[in-house]
Amino acid sequence: MRARHRTALLACTAAFALQAQAQSLHPLLTPPAAQRYPEELSREMQRIAGGTTAQERARQLVAALAKSLAQPREGIRTLVVPERPIAGQLSAVAIVPPSSKPGVPIGVCLQQGIVGEDGQMTHTNIGMLQIASSGSVAPHLWTGERVGAEVDGKLQAACAPYRTGYITYIQSAAPG
């Protein structure tokens, strides 16, 4: 009888530990990172993109990332902010690692849609950032393709090569 109680107790303890681990916040959402990274992200986006939309995009990206990081993530997530950018708008494509790799920085690609004389929308990748779990934001040097046409209605075409490369980087990183 005692063996069954002990087994049940161990099973309950393991279940609570797994639940607590799933509910633990990403380091980026806890102080001091939570106070620092929104400002750093806004400054860095402003530096790369210039213009007046960069600060608003930074606020939207912070909100989207906070929502994504607060939930357990089994796989890699891609967030596009705003979800449906229009011509001329700055948009950010964030590649968020799974919960099992909290030390891997979030990759962010900034792009801008431009309508050419032929009426076709193209997108230019104007710069990349990495957001560490410590809250620091740094430029991410990347020399891949920077201009792309809209592909299958997907507005993150210019960031697609960066996204593919960053996903490979996340997959090869060690857990933890």
Architecture overview:
There is one protein chain. The chain has 176 residues and is α+β, with helices and mostly antiparallel strands. It has one domain. The chain is built from 4 helices and 6 strands. Strands 1, 2, 3, 4, 5 and 6 form a 6-stranded antiparallel beta sheet that branches. A hairpin with an 8-residue loop joins strand 1 and strand 2. About 8% of the residues have low confidence.
Write the layout of secondary structure elements.
Layout: H1 2-23, H2 33-49, H3 53-69, E1 77-81, E2 90-96, E3 106-115, E4 121-131, E5 137-139, E6 147-149, H4 160-172
Antiparallel strand pairs: 1-2, 2-3, 3-4, 4-5, 4-6
Helix pairs in contact: 2-3
Task: Please name the defining characteristics of this protein.
176 residues, globular, alpha+beta
Shape: globular
Structural class by secondary-structure content: alpha+beta
Q: List the total number of helices.
A: 4
Distance, first to last CA: 39 Å
Strand percentage, roughly?
Answer: 15-25%
Mean pLDDT figure: 80
Task: Return the string of H and E elements.
Answer: HHHEEEEEEH
The percentage helix is 25-40%
Low-confidence segments: 9-22
The tally of domains stands at 1
Nearest-angstrom radius of gyration? 19 Å
Concise structural overview:
The protein is α+β, with helices and mostly antiparallel strands and 176 residues long. It is 39% helix and 22% strand. A hairpin with a 5-residue loop joins strand 4 and strand 5.
